[in-house]
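Bug #77: duplicate submission created two jobs. Keeping one. Sequence:
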Amino acid sequence: MTAKTDLPPIPPALAGVALIDAPTCAAAGGMSVSWWHEEVRTGRAPAPAVRQPRCTRWRLPDVVAFWQAFASKGEADAQGAEQVTAKARKASAAARAKRAAGASAAAQ
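Kept job's structure:
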């Protein structure tokens, strides 16, 4: 039996109809298999194309589209986080200035 890493790559002509398993789906995004199954269960990840006992498979194009959307969402979240961080820094600077003004007024 060969390891999963010893398998040949999917030929480009078959990439549109290729079926892949959960470990491959999860590995494509660097996540765990349990994380992948939770995403499928909640409906965020694509539903399997084949669901048989011990043989659940997803269409490769569906999984690729999921990971592309996931990456795009991550970029948008990062931009939002930068905006929140900038607002927080501005508010902290204003609070420090207000405290400093109050301390200097109290000292007089």
